[in-house]
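SpoIID/LytB domain-containing protein
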Amino acid sequence: MLDRIFLSNSYSYRKKKCAAVIVFIAIYLLIPTIVTLNVTGVVYTPVNEDYSDGRKVIVKYRNATQEVGVDRFVAMVLAKRLYMSSEVEVLKAESIMIRTDVYRLMGEQMIIDSSELGMEYMTTQQMKSKWGKDYEDNYNLVKDCTAATSGLAIRYNDKYIEARYTYITSGSTLSGASILGDEYAYLSAVECNNDKNAQDYLVVKTISNKDFVNSFEKKYDSINLDKNNLAQQIQIVSKNEAGYVLKLQIGNVVMSGSEFAYVLGINSPNFSIEYMQTGVKITTIGVGEGFGVSVYTADCMAKAGSSYEDIIETFYNKINIISE
């Protein structure tokens, strides 16, 4: 009799213990989802980071290369751009833009080297080094936003667009049709009044005459520049109505405003130059070339409740977001 009571109690105990374990596991699995949803607005679902439609990108690590699926590469590029905005809907829009550019540049190929894409990305080790204790949260954020838009890309007239973006405009994005040609008609001119409130909207940088000349001589062997009297050796040939320099001549070399900005490491081709005895003072407006999505305005839109579709359709005209 005592044996039966003991066995009955033991069985009941095991049932309760088993039920407790099941409840614990359920709570353990649920908490990350609830926390992620509250913090990012994206429900985390485990995904294979190498999943794609078969297309691959070859990425370079310190001493090796590796083939990764397009979505994983998109997340690596998105990680590099995370400094611009951490808003979920902006990151979703950016992930679609990155994927669109990857598909456009791949064409019919199923595999492409990342060097052919011209996109900066971060490896896992670089992310851990830069983000430290925030690595897991930041990477889950970019990975979740990439997964949420997996396979989506942007087309105009049944072709992948060049998904241009600008961090901060001079107050409005530029019309693609009027400056770049009809094939860029999807790049809308959109007012971005909030951009004028951005910290880097207006930046003044002073460069010594010597450093100015050295910078261009490293890039152009036969530029023939003299550090004395630079004002007579620099000529702005053309600007657009928004103030972006389209063409200028430095010494005997003609270049675009974007090339000039790249060589000197200034924020934008929207600039003015003031000549001083010992150097030049360059004032830039905005960050980037002025075309496509204004990331700063998109960030403001997301904070006000706009979706990634709203953001994309605001800055790109008559496009379709399609699933591959």
